[in-house]
Design brief:
Layout lengths: L1 E10 L3 H10 L10 E11 L3 E10 L2 H8 L2 H7 L14 E6 L2 E3 L5 E3 L4
Antiparallel strand pairs: 1-3, 1-4, 2-3, 5-6
């Protein structure tokens, strides 16, 4: 499994607009092989921004990579730069290979990193 995350430092007076962009756009993620889940996370409020993160789980790194090269990815992000500035700088990408999984039943397993 691979988890892709982007951190956004959203200007305090732009949080409603930022959330509206996410809730009103087509994502196409559900059409992609290997897509598991997406979450938009709202984190702590700081002095000059509110922290948000997008969190997408993929069956494999190859599935994530295919998403980034797909027409669906381009369609999802085609209007990203057309909005008024709502963040402090660009999003910060972080990608993670899952190496351990704990299940709700209490199972623990080591996952082979890709």
């Amino acid at each position: 499994m691979y988890i892709a995350m982007n951190r956004f430092k959203v200007l305090k007076d732009c949080t409603k607009d930022f959330e509206h962009v996410w809730f009103s756009r087509e994502s196409y993620l559900h059409e992609m092989p290997g897509f598991i889940a997406f979450h938009l996370l709202k984190g702590p409020e700081k002095e000059d921004h509110h922290l948000y993160s997008s969190h997408t789980a993929w069956a494999s790194y190859a599935d994530f990579e295919a998403w980034t090269k797909s027409e669906a990815f381009r369609k999802t992000h085609d209007r990203a730069g057309n909005n008024k500035p709502m963040t402090l700088g660009h999003p910060e990408f972080e990608g993670f290979h899952v190496i351990q999984e704990v299940t709700p039943q209490g199972g623990v397993r080591r996952v082979a990193a890709e």
